[in-house]
Amino acid sequence: MSDNNFVATPWWSLNSLNILIIFTILALSINLISYNVSTKEYFIAIFLFLLAFVTTYTTKNSTCALDLAWIFILRKVNIKQFIWTILITNLILFFLTWLSYRMGSTLDFTNSVSGKHSLGFGNPNTLGQVAAVLIITSLILQMIKGINNISLFSLNLFALGLLYVSGSRGALVISFCAYIVYGALRKNFLPERNQRILIFFYLFSLIFIVIFSFYSTGESVYTSGSFLNILDKIFTNRIGLNNYFMNQYGLSWFGQRVDYSYGSSIGLDVQYAVLDNGILKSFINYGILYTLSIFFLSYLLCKRMIRFEQNWILVPLVSFCFYGFVEQGFNSFWVNFTIGLLGSVFNTKSVFLKQLPTQKDGK
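The chain above was modelled as a monomer; its predicted structure follows.
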């Protein structure tokens, strides 16, 4: 057991980034060889490669390059199979990690004050991410007739149990948002036939969370009793860190290297300095150009999916928007799996229709 120790790496994860990079290169190579790549797709690949090269060079970080590579690799993926793969992969990941913990290979990193548990993961928030992804993918599959209500109930009961054990506030935020959007769509509070309202709902959510994220960098976080000060206490100094990183680095067009310090999360006396707000991290660390490119692609994805009556896309898109306020997993395709669907906006209508869980003619 470990008290107040949220930074630890299970033995199989020591080289996980290198493994992921190698796997990405192999997948990209096979993708380029196996598919008949059109001239348009080559231009898209060149744009994504240049953007990945610039952001990787300026940030000294491979996250953007990996995201952009998988946007291209998954551009023609069958969406229903993709969602199933995400759900099953997270289930397998949990059980392998949990079994490793039960066999003594990894530890349950806990906090005796907050009651958080990791059950073998290196961080309780990672366990929370797995739970949240299980909830979101199960809701999507129920909406596209991939699973029945009994399976939905069982999966969500299991995932909510993991969420409770993890004590992750970020996972709680995204799960709550997912249930709200799911309920609004099922009960027609978001009118399924009014495409403009549905698209506006996503744009409003995205713009609101971006504005609120920048507002959270204000100096009033240090004023006792202020709204930001209260919010900072609720989210254990994360709001104060927003202010710290904005003052320390500011914004750049093409990204910049940002130094993070992992240690005690108690106070700002700077053993612990990590920018958990994924929205701000994207703007500050990865740059305005990269961030706006991803946001624009997400808007095009939302618009195109809703045009073909795939309104379920609002569940993950809106949920991950709000998740971005409290967790940097918003920027990683292995957490925010909507990034893996962004490449579909480049496809022709006929190719896109083949990707959909249910095919609609559109307007």
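Strands lie at 2-3, 109-110.
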